[in-house]
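Hey, can you fold this one?
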Amino acid sequence: MKQTNPQLLSSVTNALRLLKLFTLQSPEKRLTEIARELGLGKSTTSRLLSTLLSEGFVYQDPVTHKYRLGQRIVTLYHTILLSHMDLQEAAMPVIERLAAETSEDIRVAVLEENEVVYIHQVGPRNLLDEEAFSGGRASAFATGGGQLLLAYESEAGLAKVLSAPLNRHTPLTRTDPDELRAHLKVLRKQGYCVSAGEYRKTLGSVSAPLRDASGHVISVLTLIAASDRLDEKRISLLTSKVVKAAKEISRRFGYLK
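Sure. Predicted structure:
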């Protein structure tokens, strides 16, 4: 990959790119496979792997010689979860009440690059939605919660997301950057997002932002339900409930407006 920012270290960038190659669908890879996907030579890739191996970020199976993510990643993941513990503790009573009142899935998500990461979930979990559980990810631009987080993202962060390929998940997915940017402006102004069938054909959502004491949007509260349960009247009722719950959680963080 061509380095365009002189402040970025190519070796660090390549190491991080390497780590992101490991997914749930492809948790193990050989050296040649990694080198090909990175577009790097085998010797360079081998040096990267050796460094990551020495620090515990990757592990090499002694029998198959394949690489996978190492224990250090697990440690960092638990650190991330603990860093969000205050958020979960503040949100828990409110989202449990909201889940009980609506009988729907309630989730808290944060933005990580071009994806939303679900850090908490309460509800019936009866949806065929593999991203539902803690640590699950989904495309930010195609999900209601992700769009709302992008609406409050910095211009540099938003430009980075919109410059990447916007793959269509359903016929309703917005994939035109200009159209999406205009949509995000509307969301920021109204302060909530209602989405239906953009990421999963059969699912819809209502999302509202969670803010810290300074007013900064730190995460998003999202109600997710089957589309056939979301008629116009119920969407209006659920929107009122989700926005009210999000404001209550934000007040627990000191946001008083």
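Residues 27 and 62 are 16 Å apart (CA to CA). Let me know if you want another pass with a different chain boundary.
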